[in-house]
Amino acid sequence: MDNLIIAGKPYHSRLLVGTGKYKDFVQTRAAIDASGAQIVTVAIRRTNIGQTAGEPSLLEYLPPEEFTYLPNTAGCYSADDAVRTLRLARELLNGHSLVKLEVLGDPRTLYPNVTETIAAAKVLVKEGFDVMVYTSDDPIIAKQLEDIGCSAVMPLASLIGSGMGILNPWNLQIIIENAKIPVLVDAGVGTASDAAIAMELGCQGILMNTAIASANNPILMASAMKKAVEAGREAYLAGRMAKKLYGAAPSSPITGLID
Questions:
Q1: Sequential pLDDT tens for the chain (259 residues)
Q2: 65, 54 in Cβ contact below 8 A?
Q3: Residue 243 catalytic?
Q4: Residue among 160, 161, 156, 222 nearest 184 (CA)
Q5: Catalytic pick from 100, 122, 126, 143?
Q6: For the whole model, what pTM was predicted?
């Protein structure tokens, strides 16, 4: 089976889904079921996973026995803040080591601060975390994060929540060609065709939240994204035909025609 391997563990789904922005935890669960995702991200600063006693917990709707949690540092703007947040996540999730690191540069664009991201990654890897890291689509930065020891690098397709799709496929291809760890698109996917294109380029997976949660019908969009990721991966493995300005070769043979 063509599995996604993250930190040594295989996953049959290459679609990772966030848990924010849904109207309630019931809709969250329904959308994630429709997506087929096995890895779900959770913003430790915004979602209750036990740190707020007496309030509904995501753990009740998405049991850790059924899903792999990927706690993230959404809302962090410094390396120190991100490291503290993920240390808390490890405590809340009983020593869980797989995390998503994102250190943002400003609250308007949510563009990554790669300097702080690199600083945080060094600390987290040294402390035994398996770090999946959100970053810019800069091939040099992506390689540096791999060399630090990150488990996966996740360049943006376009700005978080923008739905603009892949704005720079060339940089993304350079990152994929040079990486020895999984490359997943994170941020900017807006619809199923964006997801398919990312997978056709050779990405090993996609992480998304807003594209599903902000759709008019999140559950139906989750199902569409599942199919798009699967189709894009199959197309990549199959190898597309070469592009030609003129075909000059009919789909059906012309020899041996009946007069």
A1: 689 999 999 999 999 999 988 988 899 999 999 999 999 998 876 776 666 666 777 878 888 889 999 999 988 999 999 999 999 889 888 888 999 999 999 989 989 999 999 999 999 999 999 999 999 999 999 999 999 999 999 999 999 888 889 999 999 999 999 999 999 999 889 999 999 999 999 999 999 999 999 999 999 999 999 999 999 999 999 998 888 887 666 666 655 656 5
A2: no
A3: no
A4: 156
A5: 100
A6: 0.88
Tokens at 148, concatenated:
């630090």
Beta bridge pairs of residue 11? 4
Do residues 10 and 4 touch, judged by C-beta distance below 8 A? yes
Contact 15, 33 (CB under 8 A): no
The 10 Å Cβ neighbour count of residue 245 is 5
Reading the block at residue 49, the tokens are 């996973």
